[in-house]
Amino acid sequence: MTGRIPEDTIREIRERSDIVEVVSSYLPLKRSGANHQGLCPFHGEKTPSFNVNATRQIFHCFGCGVGGNVFSFLMRMEGLTFPEAVRRLGERVGISIEEETLSPAEQQRREDHERLTRVNEVACDFYHQVLLDDKEGAAGRRYLRERGYDGETARIFRLGFAPGRWEALAEHLAQKGFDPRWARELGLIRPGKDGRGDYDLFRNRLLFPILDLHDKVVAFGGRVLDDSLPKYINSSESPIYHKGRILYGLARAREEMRRSDEVIVVEGYFDQLALHRAGFANAVATCGTALTDEHGRLLQRYAKKVLLLFDQDNAGRKATFRAMEVLLPLGLSVAVVGLDAGEDPDSFLRKAGTEAFIGRLREAQPVIEVYMDAVLTAHGDGIEGRARAAEEIMARLRLVPSEIERSLYLQSLARRTGLDPGLLQQRIARSVPVPAVQSPRSAPQPPVPQRRSAPVMSKEVKAQELLLRLMLEDDGIRAEVAVEGVASLFFDPDRQAIADQLLDRARDGEKFAESELFDRLNEEQKAIFSGILVKDEKAFAEERQRIVQDCRQTVLKETLKRRVRDLDEQIRRAEQSGDLQQLAACQIERLNVCRELKK
Fold first, then answer.
1. To 10 degrees, the CA torsion angle through 386, 391, 396, 400?
2. Is 307 helix (H, G, I), strand (E, B) or coil?
């Protein structure tokens, strides 16, 4: 792979790929009118809502809202980047890909990446062979047997053992002809002092290879076999390893995560291995770090529900609540699995068995409820304590995207603290953050799409999608939108971006090719556009001018609603600072804006 894939090649691969054939290789489809239908592979359902349109070469699920073209489907199914999906389909349809030339700097970066990956693979094979066959790995084999793990587990997860010698890996890599600076960059070996040679980072430890989504070894975790400290050491970060972006076991767990729509997140390598051995193939582990935003987006691709199973001590509880702050804003359902004090998944499964563990999964509590319990207990039952607890809890409730769910938690908080529900609702309404709106022209396209929540087709959204369909088919409507301005008719940034693309192509005098238009949209926009295209044309048989007027009203209404929220925040600040003049001015303006809304 030496460069960028030419646009002509991408177009040829797209034109020669049949999306119905590609999707059918993953799930059964049945003909239904103009579309083919099946059970959506991206969320659990019993009634088919997943549609594939052969004419337009697109797919769309009306259950979870995902959609796009054949590249989008493969990216979601396999966790591929766009170039990887293009190459995979190119192989399928027999098109060889001649890539455009990279700059010398880009070429060097790619070669360095491949070389570092190769060093890790050779190191993994070395450690794995020591564990399975070498006399230096006897202690590692004995340790695994004592914990109930056989050779099959070691082979599946490519476990290894680092000999106790200081230069075992360094000597092996030298024999294979590798420059030691590559292993140093990966942190596998370190330079000696006072003229002594390089020495190994991992010595006399059981090793867990850490793989990326493409089954490439990017790092290692090493555990001692006794009680010496540190118990675990991990590879340092490198050009191919960023611990905040990798989850141990994800490459193996993602298919079961997608099937069950659930994932169990644990802290340790052995926790993940124990769950996999017991049949819970949807388990992943963090690599010695707190759950990050990147971790959250990875989980969001494959599951809707996250079961957190961290240690039962204070550190584990803090990790649970940090994870809550990452996962809830993504719209994921998050629950906490409780085990007895001092137990971890491995010890619990060995003592109580699989059925008892399944019972604990069923009893998992929503993370917000666990957080409320912890905060209320910590602050005590006094008036001041309850007030402080309520403030802390409301700050976390703002992470919950669903207004209905948030309201139910507020009612529970009111009952437990004795506070007025209306007061709590008023307080949180003034400070629920409004999601940042990205510029539709500058919003970056993610390498791999995220899961979307089930779409809510409000009257306002329907009007905007009707107008987009008319813009696709009617020169007069496009001209009218161009005169009035996209921002005057589309409030939602993704639908604004689609409208902008339609107008840009019209200005350039280009013939509308829906397949090429898809390539200009990000994955969220592709999902919206595919939902518009896959519907029966009769669904859009509406009066044109009424549609335009509905969109105009939507933008005005949303603008006024946002102004009300801004004024609420200004009123709160004026009350805190005692600025009575500012307070009065904001209250008067708020009253006038609310009157406009009622009209």
1. 100
2. strand
Q: Do residues 244 and 289 lie in contact, with contact meaning Cβ atoms separated by under 8 Å?
A: yes
Is the domain defined by 249-451 classed in CATH 1.10.4100.10?
no
Give the Cα separation of 246 and 282 in Å (integer): 15
Predicted pLDDT at 532: 82
Instruction: Report the pLDDT value the prediction gives residue 365, as an integer from 0 to 100.
Output: 95
Give the three-state DSSP class for 58: strand
Domain 456-599 has CATH 2.60.120: no
**What spatial distance separates the first Cα and last Cα of the chain, rounded to whole Å?**
60
> What are the residue ranges in the chain where pLDDT is below 50?
1-2, 432-456
Taking the domain 7-93, which CATH number applies? 3.90.580.10
Distance CA 393, CA 371 (A): 8
Decide: 437 and 493 in contact? Cβ < 8 Å. yes
In angstroms, the Cα distances linking 554 to 100, 358, 429, 457 are 45, 48, 22, 14
> Could you tell me which of 476, 398, 469, 484 has the C-alpha nearest to residue 433?
398
Pick the closest to residue 267 from 316, 322, 206, 306 (CA basis): 316
Q: Which pLDDT score is estimated for 436?
A: 34
Looking at the domain covering 104-241, what would its CATH class be? alpha beta
Integer-rounded Cα radius of gyration of the chain:
28
For residue 284, list its beta bridge partners.
Answer: 265
Domain ranges of the chain: 7-93, 104-241, 249-451, 456-599
* CA dist., res. 115 & res. 179, Å (int): 10
Per-residue DSSP letter, 288: S
Residue position matching structure tokens 């070395």:
126
Distance between CA atoms of residues 27 and 25, nearest Å: 6
Backbone angles phi, psi at 35, to 5 degrees: -115, 170
DSSP bridge partners of 339: none
Smallest CA-to-CA distance from 495 within 515, 466, 519 is with 466
Rounded Cα gap, residues 72 and 88, in angstroms: 12
